[in-house]
Amino acid sequence: MTGRRHALGRNRSPLGRRLLYGLAEHAPAVAVALCFLLPLMISVLTAFMTQHQAGTGSLWPSPWDFGNFRRVFTAMPFGRDLLNTVLYAGLSTIGTIVSSVPVAYALARLRWRGREAFFLVVLAAMMLPAQVTSLPLYVFYSHIGWVGTLKPLIVPSFFGDAFSIFLLRQFFRTIPGELTEAARVDGAGELRILLRVMIPMTKPAIAAVGLFSFLYAWNDFYNPLLYTGNSQGGQTLAVALTQLAKSGHQNAYQLQMAASLMFLLPVLVLFFLAQKVFVEGIALTGIKG
Amino acid sequence: MFKLITGAVAGTAAALLLAGCTSAGPASSEPTTAISAGASHAPTTISVWTFNHLPNEVAAFTAALNRLHAKYPWLTVKFVPNKDDAAFAKAVAAGDPPDVFVASAPDNVGKFCANGTVADLGPYLSSAKVNTTATFPAATLVYTKYQGKQCALPLLTDAFGLYYNKKMFAAAGITTPPKTLSELAADAKKLTVKNGDGSIKTYGFVSRSDYNANRYIYTGVQSGTKFYGADGKATFGTDPKWQQLLQWDKSLGDSYGPGNVQKFVGRYQPHADDTNNPFLTGAAAMEFDGEWHIGEIDAAKKGIDYGIAPMPMLDSASGTYGAGDTLGTVAYLPAGSKHKQEGFFALQQLTTDTTFLNTLADTVSNIPSTFASLQSWDKANDPHWKPLVDMFKNPGSYYKTLTPAGEEDMDTWREFLLQYEQGKVANLPSGLAGIAKKIDNSNAQAGN
Amino acid sequence: MTTTVARSAGTVSGAPRRPARGERRRHPSKTRWWVVLAFLSPFVIGLATFVLYPVAATLYYSLTNFQAGSYRPVRFVGLNNYRTLFTQSDNFWIAVRNTVWMVVIMVPLRTAWAMLTAWLITRVKRGRNVYRTVFFLPHMVPPVAAALSFIVLLNPVGPLNKLLGLFGIGEPGWFSDPAWSKPSLVLMALWAAGNTMVIFSAAMLDVPRELYEAADLDGAGPFRKFRSITLPAISPVIYFSLLTGMIYAFQYFTEAFVVSGSANVEASSNELIGYPARSLLFYSTELYQQGFSYFKTGYASAMAWLLFLAIFAATVVFIRASRRFVHYSGGDR
Question: Where is the ABC transmembrane type-1 domain (chain C) (predicted)?
């Protein structure tokens, strides 16, 4: 890569060379960036098209129709479904953090026989697809009358989430052991060490885990489809959006896109607010498989 | 320590396993005394689910239910549109079924009846003194009854025909609609128009099984081919007419050139029921569809001059022209309903009330499903409706035998059709024999 | 705010880890068992209720003719469900084939694409963060919204085909054509590969520049530099990406379900699964159809158990096989 600078544009003026070099540097990346943005741009533009124009292959809205975002609210109970989605994502995030932090702490910092074996169990649980467990769970939830409510989505998160436990354990292990040991020597109990030493030091990590579990719930389709997809009061947006296409609004692409954008917006806001936590959190997930 | 945890976990799991496996028995049977229309009754709210989802259909249902409530103020109905059979099955499994469920097609009557998902209406009908054979045309009782049990009632019915564009027919010099499949194929070729660049502007007739309602061409009814023989076994391997039907289909599809039928289906399948429907836009000269298409054509107001004829029969068939698939919307009383008496009352009102049936028939563009409503219906002699109503009355019309595997037989059959149409079945006779065996197996398994 | 995260991110290239191990040797004292149990208890209960019980119950169901919601008596049928799966169901084998297609085609392509885009990012000097944000952005789009966008984009008469038409390139049927439907899903997976891209670019940027400069002095070409410097540094990421991608592809559901369901608004829900022509019938969508449309709970349970075993076996095989190829610097393993 470093050799390129010498080879390129030997006979050109410094400005021309800089331009050419800049072009060579940026052109491929810009091209790829445009490919990445194309689907989003099409979605945004479609959301401003009239019913007549949407889905016809037109690229530019003419005329611009700004009413689609309003129409989404009459075409589907968007507000109610949004509330459900917020409840699911919010409560399950709280549940995941509250229940996973102590387990991760026990795996990272407490010493007990069988710890490594237990960690393997966590890893195995992490790999287990939802499809494997959903048949008996569906029967179980229907026996106790939970199907059709948000409970099957939220309650399990209060009993620990394997992926979050795994991630938090990795984070916790990066904290110098001297700190917890010092607290232990001072006679602090483990709960106190966790609350006073560990958590304050790993706030960004916990934030990353929280973000991941929020996003997981926000985007989740399979579980809401199974447990609330059928219900009258408890749909989440991910499922409701797919049904918007099928409830007498066939090919109402403009409404679907408008609703999708409203569904996407909170995620994007979250992303831009906490971009660093995200990107670094993701980079971390990839390190120790 | 680890042992302690695994022990605790295993114990809990075992306890749960035992608890989870005790299956709930059928809902306790109640005495089936009919609610008399005149008597007062404690206020009750029931839920009615339907597959209908188009705004005009939902409006018609809501209006009818409002009239019902006005007539019987004690009965309040919570109406839920856009529920298919899978959604219903899910609600049943979740232990919270609606009190009445209206399904778009009768394919699952056999399954729901066999596994007890829906109630046998017999006792309710007799205590309400409804004589089914005097109320509902025989064709509708074929697809609502399973092994002698009346597990559903018809709520409007469907008939399928060949829609043809008269102007295009005249331009191609065709005077009468085709009566045999080879005539249909010849007409389709005459009606196919190409653009300057060789692409197809108008398709004469696209017969591919996954397009719109075409699957009902392949039940064989038009040619008197029975899906199941007298022994209850699928006849694909034994009746040579199936081969003829499929070969006709494939050669017609292939005549458009490779990829063109796929292009047509890809482009128009999502628009089969809206104003971009190819028959409405002129991209198809003929189309096989149900009677609701009349309503869609009217609503589009494109001034198309069209006719409807029975779907042609195989050349090897004789005397079956005019027969077609007759099936329709069915209404169930779920066995797990908590208001079965009231549910049946509403079901009875909906399925037998002439005003409701006629209004709903006009709104959703279907055929009324009782003798009384057929009589008072103003469309019976309309030139578009008449061939379809005649088909409905034709003694050769039927719907394939219902089975305890529900719609699985049709699903399996349709997947096979599509594979054959795409040239993925090397040997048709052995493929047909194989698919017959598969369907028989799945029925046998569901039956025990 | 980010110190912890940043520090740990540094371990990508194998910066020495905190001496957790040495510390353990210094203080071998064990925590009292009831304290440990108290910390673990929520998860232990959850594990029993939401993992172990369902796994055991699925095994039990798979040996019966159980149909959830049906009132007919539950009978023990031995291995019948498994026999039906293997010998009588095309759907099962089609689903297996389609799923394996995704594992074999989509997963490596996605990894390669993430690697390529990450390399593009490391190549630019100014504005790297802007590109990284743009490349990563699609990953943030919820799968359902992404699928709906792609349905609009790849509509047979839609914008992309219009653009392709301008260049005189043929107009594929994308999601409506069985031959194009899976490649269209791959396209979507590539579009959303931003998370893997981020991991790759972190690993690539961690390679000390001096190594490349030394290689330049030795007269190494770009390919050689990639093979002997970059590749060893990013091999753990390739490994991770392939492993997680494989597990993900085994349970591929949402995109396929939404695409099949929305590309064909007319059909009823059973017809939608796998549309068009079962080309998008994946293991999980078939399991959903059998288990939650037909409610053949016993039969679907047999499928679920096989999925569980398959994922487990594939993971073990993959981990074993990759030990030879993955280079971990810093002696972490």
Answer: 96-318
- The residues, ordered by sequence, that sit 6+ positions from C82 with a Cβ below 8 Å of its Cβ are C62, C302, C306
Query: Minimal Cα–Cα distance from C91 to chain B, Å?
Result: 9
Assigned domain for B375 exists = yes
CB contact under 8 A, C250 and A129: yes
CATH number for the domain spanning B45: value is 3.40.190.10
Whether B360 is in a domain gets the answer yes
Which secondary-structure segment (H or E) carries B327? strand B326-332
Contacts of B5 in chain A (CB under 8 A): 114, 118
Q: How many whole angstroms separate alpha carbon B225 and alpha carbon C146?
A: 46
pTM listed for this prediction: 0.87
Residues 73-92 of A with CB under 8 A from C: none
pLDDT category, B20, cuts 50, 70, 90? Answer: very low
> Which chains form contacts with chain A, at 3 or more CB pairs under 8 Å?
B, C
CA–CA separation, C131 and C124 (whole Å): 9
DSSP state of A118: H
Q: What DSSP string runs through A27-54? A: HHHHHHHHHHHHHHHHHHHHHTS-TTTT
Q: Containing domain of residue B154, as a range?
A: 24-158+327-393
Structure ipTM:
0.89
Residue B246 CB-half CA count within 13 A: 23
Average pLDDT over residues A121-127: 90
Element (H, E) at A132: helix A130-143
Q: What is the pLDDT of residues C249-279, one digit of tens each?
A: 999 999 999 998 876 555 455 567 888 888 9
Does residue B432 belong to any structural domain of this protein?
no
pLDDT of the residue at A127: 85
The pLDDT tens digits of the residues spanning B298-341 come to 988 888 999 999 999 999 998 899 999 889 999 999 999 999 99
Segment A70-96 mean pLDDT: 94
Partner B, chain C 293-332, Cβ-Cβ below 8 Å: 293-295
- What mean pLDDT value characterizes chain B? 88
Q: What is the tally of structural domains in chain B?
A: 1
> Which residues 207-246 of C are in CB contact (within 8 Å) with A?
212-213, 216, 222, 236-237, 239-241, 243-244
